[in-house]
Structure formats: C-alpha cells, structure tokens
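Pilot study result, target chain (255 residues):
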Amino acid sequence: MSRYVCNVVWDDVPHLSQAEKDELYAAIPAYQRSARTKGMPILGSGLVYPFDEERLKVDPLQKVPDFWARCFGLDTDAGAGYTAIIWLAWDRDADCVYLTHCYKSDSRSKADHIEALKAQGTKQHPLWIPGVGDAKALMVTEYDSTQVIELYRKAGVDINTPDKAVEAGVTDLYNRMLTGRFKVWSTCSEWLTEFRQYHRKDGKIVKVNDHLMDATRYAVRSALSRAKLKPTEEPAKVPVFVYQEGHAGVGWLGM
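Predicted structure:
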C-alpha cells in the first residue's frame, strides 16, 4: 500500500475566515505558532513571553490605591539558595494586574523572608496580604514542601500552596500580557532581568534564574482568587488627663 503525505497549513482550510484566524493566532503562545498555523512538527525555542518590556512597564505609584486587591506569590529553592517573592495589586474594575514589588534573596533564614513580607503590610497589620507559595524544590516530597509552607503559616503568614500547572500558568500570564492586563512597575529591576532571560529550548522552559517568574506564575494563577483589600487602620489612642468634679484620672482619646 502506498502513502502520500501532504503538509496542510491553516490557509488551506476554507472554513476559517481571516477574522477567525487572527483571533486564534493572537491566543496561541508564540513558540507554538509555527506548529499550529503551518503544521511544522518542531518544538519551539525562544522567549516564553515575547513582548516588548516597554509595553509592560509603568511608573510606580506613590501609594497603591486602597480599592486594589493585594496578594503575593513566593518561590523558594534551597538548591540555588534563593527565595523570591512578588506582590500584585489587582484593579478589579479594569481587570488589570500590577506587579508592584519584588524580593529575591539567597538568605537561608525564613525570618528574613517574613520580614520582607511584613514590609509590604501596615503597622497594625503587617501580614495582612494573602498569597501562595511553593517549596517543592527545597525538599524531596510534596509532604516536605507542605511542611515548609506550614512554618510560614505558624509565623502568621496567610499563605496557601499554588496550582503549579506550568503551561496553564504561563498561558494565564501570557494572555494578560497580550491584552494589556498585566503591568510591572519600572522599579522591579530584578523581575525585568529574569523576564528578559526567561526562555525555552526545544519546547521546554529553561530552569535557570527563574524564581521571580515562577512566583509570578503562581500568583496570577492561584493568588488572585485570594486577593484582599487593605484593612482599615484602627485610630490610635493617646492618654489624656481627665478631671471631673471630685475626681481626676487618666483616660484615652482617639485620634
């Protein structure tokens, strides 16, 4: 029996209109476009997020608006000795996510990382921002990873383990970048450095210098559903001398 193999591109498919092809093309990750549109059986290489960083960068605000929900993503890896954390602010009205701060440290002390988390909180509620975090690379089993996250919880951090589906998480973030619904404060220089180098080789993401990228993927996929608004600060109180006829003492005055 003889066989004939013919390569068919989607331009050869009559039922797809140009508008439909444009819409489909925009939704396909860049590294898959040749395979999906031209039938080229190759594994992609190149940047995971092939976008001009100038499209993503915005000037930082002096203060994140209180009506933007906040969350964080954390990734830790003892093999490389790094812990990375990113913070997101979500303008729900516009469905736009802003990466406002990032942290990356080779310290082995969880206390240092917890202080970084506290620095993004308030004086009265230093750990109010919820998030997700992964420590699997730190240990041998998933149970060990969960135990590490439990240590953060015991310290008062509002943290859950994330959905770590790589391609689904990458697609979530890719689509936000594509549609202008993901922005990065220009002051997040370490994040931008990783972003420029985050790439694939033979279809696989190269796992080098990617801790902030992983933390971002975890946060966009799993932490946005946990995001909270900044709590209202309780008014401070100061002692005042109170005098009533026949009585004197110290009371408290709210400011």
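One observation from the pilot: The chain has two domains: 10-42, 53-226. A full batch analysis is planned for the follow-on phase.
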